[in-house]
Amino acid sequence: MTKIPLRRFTARALPIDDQDRVLLLYGFDPERPDEPFWFTIGGALEDGETLPEAAARELYEEVGMRAEAGDFSGPYGTSTIEFHWSQYAITQDQTFFAIRMGPDAAVSFEHMDQIEKDTTTAYRWWSVAELEGTDEVFFPEDLAAILRKITKGGGFA
């Protein structure tokens, strides 16, 4: 089946807890439900948004955590990736921003779009060591290096 091409510019929000773990979501492509993976919070810019504004909006929409654009640090990495999701062939420019979250930060899927609710099944806080030692699939594949950069010497408090 031919995929619909889609080009998008995204902000990826990396909430970091007081143990230097990053929050990831677990889900699947609706066309490949038997191939789940871990992924970062984030999504495409809306008209007139800056990347940090999109990161703040996506943080709230995907996990229910409120933050202001100015609360994010970074960027801690940028990349262009290509992948398929549902009926789309996506080319995505992504930029990673971090935000420190307190130990009482609660996760809620309440504000997700329905397709996100249907395809996101769990969340988990991951350390660098856990990312480096797992056989589970997660994206981006260099997330452990990005997390290390954020938490060790990047000035992240």
Commentary on this structure:
With 157 residues, this protein is α/β, with parallel strands linked by helices. It has one domain (4-151): Nucleoside Triphosphate Pyrophosphohydrolase. It has helices spanning 51-63, 114-119, 128-133, 143-151, and strands at 4-16, 22-29, 32-39, 41-44, 78-85, 88-100, 120-126, 138-139. The strands form two sheets. It has a four-stranded mixed sheet. The chain has a four-stranded mixed sheet with strand order 7-2-3-8. A hairpin with a 2-residue loop joins strand 2 and strand 3. The termini are far apart. The model has no long low-confidence stretch (mean pLDDT 94).
Oligomer: single chain
Report the strand count: 8
CATH architecture: Alpha-Beta Complex
Estimate percent helicity.
10-25%
Give the strand content: 35-45%
Q: How many structural units, i.e. domains?
A: 1
Distance from first to last alpha carbon: 47 Å
What do we call the CATH topology? Nucleoside Triphosphate Pyrophosphohydrolase
Strand order of the biggest β-sheet? 4-1-6-5
From the alpha carbons, calculate the radius of gyration and give it in angstroms.
15 Å
Form type: globular
Q: Please summarize the sheet with the most strands.
A: 4 strands, mixed
Average of the residue pLDDT scores? 94
- Spans of at least 5 consecutive residues whose pLDDT stays below 50 are none
Q: What is the CATH level 1 assignment?
A: Alpha Beta
The topology string of helices and strands comes to EEEEHEEHEHEH
